[in-house]
Design goal:
Layout lengths: L5 E9 L3 H5 L10 H10 L4 E5 L6 H9 L3 E3 L2 H6 L5 E4 L18 H15 L4 E6 L2 H7 L3 H24 L3 E6 L3 E2 L2 E3 L9 H5 L5 H9 L4 H9 L5 H10 L7 H14 L1 E3 L4 E2 L5 E4 L12 H14 L3 E4 L1
Parallel strand pairs: 1-2, 1-5, 2-4, 3-4, 5-12, 6-12
Antiparallel strand pairs: 6-11, 7-10, 8-9
């Protein structure tokens, strides 16, 4: 804000989730989402787009409107939204995975396009926009290979749009990075075995959707066949049924993810974050500062420096 730039935060997670929260709030723990919501509003971030409607009580919505925010909830309202401050809450919690969306679900590319359109109107000193494809991480936690692919494809479309924008608007810096890897994805579970892309792309729902249907009495073989076209062995059915007995609410979805991964030629090493180095890529004025191996704390300092003394527009995805 001290640079005079307009600011925006966009995510497929709740807008009060860890990554968007860290840009405009200061709390002791990431789970303090009620307080994070208050601070996002009080800091007057110009554009806030994501999920998390359940976090914003009537009092918080009143606070937002008092602070000048136009509050929108649907695609139609997003398209027509205007003004200096816009709060868009497009799902009760996280925005549904790509594979689970219906025609009414607002996607990341839509939010990004609208955010840039609003921000470039708002300030003659440029803007700062953070765009997060947060559900790639969630899909990898669940070892849900089809969702990892679908969410990453959407993210790739967003990066492409931002790069096209930067090519047309020369004083724009685009930075693409991640804070960590999740799952430890291995490709080709045996030497020489290729990934079966067709089988991956034929999966039509998330492991969470399949798990929910099985929990509600669906036959594991039938449910998996319906959404993936794949046949389970008796051993695989047993693994899924055993997971249903676990107290871990993620166990069933994780088991389905593990079974499907091996069937399509990949394997995750973990359901947790890993220590694998992650890439950082940049395009535009100042891009030369983002080279080599670095700690993301340093990246934040360099980005802040560029905001104050460099490019007019900065997009972080």
């Amino acid at each position: 804000k001290c640079s005079g730039k307009a600011t925006g935060l966009v995510s497929t997670t709740r807008i009060t989730h860890a990554t968007p929260a860290v840009f405009a709030s200061h709390v002791k723990h990431r789970d303090m989402e009620e307080e994070i919501a208050n601070q996002l509003i009080e800091e007057k971030v110009n554009v806030l787009f994501g999920g998390g409607k359940k976090i914003f009580s009537d009092d918080k919505i009143k606070l937002a409107k008092k602070n000048g925010y136009k509050v929108v909830y649907t695609r139609e309202e997003l398209e027509s939204a205007n003004g200096k401050y816009v709060l868009g809450l497009f799902s009760n919690s996280h925005i549904p995975y790509v594979l689970d969306r219906d025609d009414k679900t607002v996607g990341l590319l839509e939010m990004t396009k609208k955010a840039i359109g609003l921000l470039e109107k708002d300030s003659d000193k440029g803007f700062f926009l953070m765009v997060e494809s947060g559900r790639i991480d969630h899909a990898a936690h669940g070892n849900d290979i089809a969702s990892v692919v679908a969410e990453t494809k959407e993210f790739d479309e967003v990066v492409g749009y931002c790069l096209d924008y930067a090519r047309k608007n020369k004083n724009t810096l685009v930075i693409v990075l991640s804070d960590h890897e999740t799952g430890g994805l291995g490709v080709g579970i045996d030497y020489g075995d290729p990934i079966d892309e067709k089988k991956i792309l034929n999966i039509k729902a998330t492991t969470g959707t399949m798990a929910k249907e099985i929990k509600n009495g669906g036959d594991p073989k039938g449910v998996i066949k319906k959404y993936t076209g794949l046949d389970l062995t008796d051993e695989e059915v047993k693994k899924i049924k055993d997971a249903m007995k676990s107290d871990n609410k993620y166990a069933l979805g994780n088991a389905i993810g593990e079974v499907l991964s091996e069937k399509v030629g990949v394997k995750f090493m973990s359901h947790k974050h890993t220590g694998v180095p992650v890439p950082i890529m940049a395009y535009g004025p100042g891009a030369e500062q983002f080279k080599g191996f670095r700690h993301h704390v340093d990246t934040s300092k360099e980005t802040a420096n560029i905001m104050l003394f460099g490019g007019d527009r900065i997009v972080i995805t």
